[in-house]
Amino acid sequence: MKENKEQILINRLLIKEETAWKELFGTYSGILSGVCSRYIIEKDDVRDVLQNSFIKMFRSIDTFEYRGEGSLKAWMIRIAVNESLKQIRQNSGFQKTVCTSDFPDTPEEEEPGLEEIPQTEVMRMIKSLPEGYRTVFNLYVFEKKSHKEIAELLGIAENSSASQFHRAKGLLAQKIKEFKMSKKAQYE
């Protein structure tokens, strides 16, 4: 059985080949920067988290277990997410930001369509959510974590995770509605 490009790169990383690390950084830094920026707002902080993530990868590559194509990327994303969460906990005390009284409950509405909204605008809306809502939303939607897993990761109650997600969805629905209304007004 022939090794694929990812396996060859992993083998080069395992022997600490410097050019392999440069190749890894060049290939994945953009993707991982995007992952970090879903959680972290400040660009300097994103760079710090990204750097810490690559340091952690370098130090722990010996523990990586290849599980098929894409497993390296998944491992790297998991490290970047964990480092982002660590940054949030250290700098802002996530516990303080997770509260349920910041915004009123939003009525359960039909989910708005995102088809006509540019992806960059949707990501901007997500980034504008309060930190607690944004973090839970990202973990649930992008990382496919359950509320139980999110609660364990963040040290909050499972129902707090569900509540944060519900409120994040409500705020996003409101922002999407406002965006669509402003676009509609432009054309009238």
TrEMBL record:
GO terms (BP aspect): DNA-templated transcription initiation
GO MF annotations, alphabetized: DNA binding; sigma factor activity
Domain RNA polymerase sigma factor 70 region 4 type: 121-169
Classification via InterPro entries: RNA_pol_sigma-70-like, RNA_pol_sigma-70_dom, RNA_pol_sigma70_r2, RNA_pol_sigma70_r4_t2, RNA_pol_sigma_r2, RNA_pol_sigma_r3/r4-like, WH-like_DNA-bd_sf
Keywords in alphabetical order: Sigma factor, Transcription, Transcription regulation
Domain RNA polymerase sigma-70 region: residue ranges: 24-92
Organism encoding this protein: Chryseobacterium indologenes
Record's protein name: RNA polymerase subunit sigma
Similarity remark: Belongs to the sigma-70 factor family. ECF subfamily.
Signal peptide start-end: none
Superkingdom field: Bacteria
